[in-house]
Design brief:
By secondary structure, this protein is mainly beta. The protein has three domains: 21-229; 233-506; 514-593, Immunoglobulin-like, CATH 2.60.40.3080. The chain contains one helix and 64 strands.
């Protein structure tokens, strides 16, 4: 036998072994190693990883459930694939599905975080009444790290793709798509302060909330896309409910749709979420059997207090009141662009940019333009009080001459405007019944001369025309474009600060320190993340809005990063300013303390 023929026979034998290789898992307890050489792994019963056991699943393994069986995990699971060779959890019968990955009591006692990387979960089903988590279910579990995973084509009564209860899981590079549930089509967080970064929640459907539902969950959401989700009873993209103080940064919540209210975001009860540098755009609400208010944000009257900073709220369309916002709770809008939103052109309601009812609002350094509504194209206030500073309202496309309409509905509404540029001045403000209008200092009604992106051009009357004063304590350090908000100790009107000449970033020395703050809002403690250079002396202060120093400490920063813990459990609830100072730098952050 020649050598060539021998090699061909060996290759044929290896290929034959691979083709016929498989592993049958009849159900019961599992542990050890699952490797690609013995896949696919056919699962013929519920399998359980015990608390005192571990299982490592290697890259390229395919796990096929041949019935509606669950993978129950109490021990240490290490499922790590690669970008080229992921791990697949699927069902042989895609209609009946399997019962999902179910994580229980994964606690800090583990030697390391459980790693679930580069895995795909599909066709998980938990469709019976009250069942939760079609693809992944986690209860009372910590130290779980899920990265570069996909959960798709799963369904459940609650949490179609993923459900968490008392489980602050860390997600990074997660994709949740094409899932369905009655509540939380993509994800449901229940008492779970999850961290979700660089992820996508897309194309999911829910009866209530198509995308992500937060219940008593103060999650951190960073650099995420929540889009093209559909809800049949409100909350197309995100629902924030019952003391959920979620913190969103650099997120896009776009192209979601709700039959009912809250096309993009619905904030329902006792919640204090914060949105920074987010795009809430092109969301819609449709009226059928439910009210269809607030295409961008829908905020109920139950003691909510959202804070929206450096955000774009654009192109949202609703069938009733509030194209950009509908709010019955206290609301802060700081350094935002609210543009081209539409409210109820066919229904005759108002508030293209904002519809506010029985609440108090602060609007600071915002720009409103291109919003449409039959009445109050920019703002419709029904029994509400709004304070406005350094804001531009201009060039709206409207169907009535009044950009701001104040409706005396049970409570006399009010509006206080200072240092703002309002097209047509007080002539653009009207109302029904009596209302309180305070046309304060520094207001103008001149063309702001901004470009197509609403940035001020040279010669704009809004340049250096804003009020700084104590407002500097709550203003962000950057404008909507990421440029310094305060230039030469002055501030402009609108959401963009005019930059004189060639922009030079605000770097005062090579020892500039970067500061992050979380959780925010906070109850017991704050973590102040600091990064920079060694040997830098810093002063960290917590200041009340009346200027009283509540807390102060001196820190010497070493090279790299450092997390400083500030205990705040004895400090009364409220809005505070956290200030970081050294001889070259002064950074401030707004902090909300809750109880």
């Amino acid at each position: 036998m020649n050598i060539t023929r021998l090699i061909l026979i060996q290759i044929f034998c290896l290929l034959t072994i691979k083709i016929i290789s498989q592993t049958i898992v009849p159900g019961g307890f599992v542990s050890g190693f699952w490797i690609a050489e013995f896949d696919p792994y056919y699962i013929d019963g519920d399998i359980t990883l015990h608390a005192d056991s571990s299982l490592a699943i290697h890259e390229g393994v395919e796990i096929i459930f041949r019935g509606h069986y669950a993978f129950n995990v109490y021990g240490y699971l290490n499922a790590v694939g690669t970008p080229e060779d992921s791990i697949i959890f699927t069902s042989q019968d895609t209609i009946a599905g399997w019962h999902g990955l179910r994580l229980f009591e994964i606690v800090q006692a583990l030697p390391d975080s459980m790693r679930i990387w580069y895995c795909r979960f599909e066709y998980g089903k938990s469709d019976e009444s009250g069942e939760k988590g079609g693809g992944v279910y986690a209860e009372n579990s910590t130290k779980i790290d899920i990265r570069h995973c996909m959960v798709k084509n799963c369904s459940a009564d609650i949490g179609g793709g993923i459900y968490m209860k008392n489980s602050p899981i860390h997600f990074n590079q997660l994709t949740v798509k094409d899932n369905y549930s009655n509540k939380g089509g993509g994800m449901y967080c229940h008492y779970s302060d999850a961290v979700i970064k660089n992820s996508k929640v897309i194309d999911n459907t829910g009866a209530v909330c198509g995308g992500v539902y937060f219940y008593h969950s103060s999650a951190i959401v960073r650099n995420c896309v929540i889009s093209n989700n559909i809800s049949h009873a409100g909350g197309g993209g995100v629902v924030i409910h019952k003391a959920s103080h979620a913190n969103f940064m650099n997120c896009k919540i776009e192209h979601n749709m709700a039959v009912g209210s809250g096309g993009g975001v619905a904030i329902l009860e006792s919640s204090l979420p914060v949105f920074k540098y987010c795009h809430i755009s092109y969301n819609t609400t449709q009226y059928q059997e439910y009210q269809a208010k607030g295409a961008g944000f829908y905020i109920t009257s139950y003691d909510n207090f959202p804070v929206i900073i450096n955000c774009f709220i654009s192109g949202n369309i609703c069938d009733e009141e509030g194209g950009g916002f509908y709010s019955e709770s206290k609301l802060q809008l700081i350094d935002c662009l609210i543009s081209n939103n539409v409210a109820s052109v066919s229904q005759g309601f108002g508030g293209g940019g904002m519809y506010t009812m029985f609440n108090q609002n602060l609007v600071l350094n915002c720009t409103f333009s291109g919003n449409q509504a039959p009445q109050g194209s920019t703002i419709y206030g029904a029994g509400s009080m709004t304070e406005m500073y350094n804001t531009v309202i201009w060039d709206d496309t409207i169907q009535t001459p009044f950009k701001i309409f104040l409706h005396n509905f049970m409570i006399t509404p009010g509006l206080k405007i200072n240092y703002s540029d309002i097209q047509d001045g007080t002539a653009s403000i009207s109302g029904s019944g009596s209302y309180n209008l305070i046309w304060g200092e520094g207001n103008i009604w001149e063309n702001p001369k901004f470009d197509d992106n609403y940035q001020l051009l040279e010669g704009s009357p809004c340049i250096d025309a804003g009020l700084l004063d104590t407002l500097a304590l709550i203003l962000p350090s950057k404008d909507l474009n990421g440029n310094p908000r305060i230039v030469n100790d002055t501030i402009d009107m609108g959401c963009y600060e005019y930059q004189y000449g060639v922009f030079t970033p605000l770097i005062l020395s090579e020892e500039t320190i970067q500061m992050t703050v979380y959780p925010n809002p906070a109850r017991e403690y704050l973590i102040v993340g600091l990064s920079g250079f060694d040997g830098v002396d810093l002063c960290l202060s917590l200041i009340s809005l009346d200027g009283k120093i509540i807390y102060r400490d001196k820190i010497t920063l070493t090279r790299g990063s450092f997390d400083y813990r500030m205990d705040i459990y004895k400090i009364p609830p409220g809005l505070y300013v956290l200030q970081l100072q050294n001889e070259n730098q002064n950074e401030v952050r707004k902090v909300i303390i809750i109880k």
